[in-house]
Amino acid sequence: MTDAPQRRVVYGRRRGRPLRLGRQALVDRLLPRLSFDLPAAGEFDPRPLFADRPRSIWLEIGFGAGEHLAAQAERHPDKGFIGCEVFENGVARLIGEVERRHLANVRLFLDDARLLIAALPPASIERVFILFPDPWPKQRHKKRRIVSRETLDTLARIMAEAAELRLATDDPGYFSSMLEQVTGHPEFAWLARRPGDWRARPPDWPPTRFEEKALAAGREPAFLRARRRPRPTSSAPVR
Ligand SMILES: C[S@@+](CC[C@H](N)C(=O)[O-])C[C@H]1O[C@@H](n2cnc3c(N)ncnc32)[C@H](O)[C@@H]1O
């Protein structure tokens, strides 16, 4: 366990327009099966969330309306997906996709993702996505950004060796900061080899609503992939 927040620290909207009756009924029916809470204290093992105990668990933080999460879950039925989001209308949209695509490998944590990260066991997650997180461009709000040294420290703890971290943003200032944080972090290695590697979204990375909004507004999204470095092996005692 880490010193991460013990209570919710999420800025931004939690609720938008009231849901249509049909969608509300779907949420009422499926949410109790899909969502989970954390124990009051102690570590939280995510594997029992999934009926067939997948060997890999992927985590998406701030999935928005869930386009990327649903597409990945459909492409990878052998993996377990945990999505974190606090915006209820986005959660309802994802639940619609879970039903439409018959996804059995998605579970939802509807609170501050950092509470979940703090409770997960070491090396328990194989891939993490934080796509187009709120940029908080004003100087006085920058400390609200979720991609920070503290978040990377806690992710490094829960990520398995060689696990991949995927970040995207259309805010040039946030991208510089993400790059600085990732390349300066001893437990992550940036995977780009040439400039095009961060300008083009890789083919196995489905688009999100915020990427589409950015492109429509003429902004250029950037995509960052990093690998969690191997943990140092504890040396055997010398006799
Ligand atoms: C700008 S939206 C991007 C949504 C989506 N990833 C996309 O690309 O379309 C950022 C989302 O992150 C969610 N969010 C912000 N902080 C969060 C946190 N601490 N835990 C979980 N979700 C969070 C917000 O509710 C919001 O829906």
List the helices and strands and how they pair.
Blueprint: H1 21-34, E1 57-61, H2 67-75, E2 80-84, H3 88-100, E3 106-109, H4 113-119, E4 125-131, H5 149-158, E5 159-169, H6 172-183, E6 188-190, H7 196-199, H8 209-216, E7 222-228
Parallel strand pairs: 1-2, 1-4, 2-3, 4-5
Antiparallel strand pairs: 5-7, 6-7
The structure holds S-adenosylmethionine.
Task: Explain what the structure shows.
The protein has 239 residues and is α/β, with parallel strands linked by helices. 32% of the residues lie in helices and 18% in strands. The protein has eight helices and seven strands, in the order H-E-H-E-H-E-H-E-H-E-H-E-H-H-E. It has a seven-stranded mixed β-sheet, sandwiched between helices. Helix 1 crosses helix 3. The radius of gyration is 18 Å and the shape is globular. The structure holds S-adenosylmethionine (SAM). The site of S-adenosylmethionine (SAM) has 23 residues, from helix 4 and helix 8.
Features:
single chain, 239 residues, alpha/beta, 7-stranded mixed beta sheet, binds S-adenosylmethionine
Structural class: alpha/beta
* Ligand inventory: S-adenosylmethionine
The ordered H/E elements are HEHEHEHEHEHEHHE
* Rg, nearest Å: 18 Å
Terminal Cα span: 33 Å
Question: How many beta-strand segments?
Answer: 7
Unreliable spans are none
Strand content bin: 15-25%
Largest sheet: 7 strands, mixed
| Widest sheet: strand ordering | 3-2-1-4-5-7-6
> What is the helix content?
25-40%
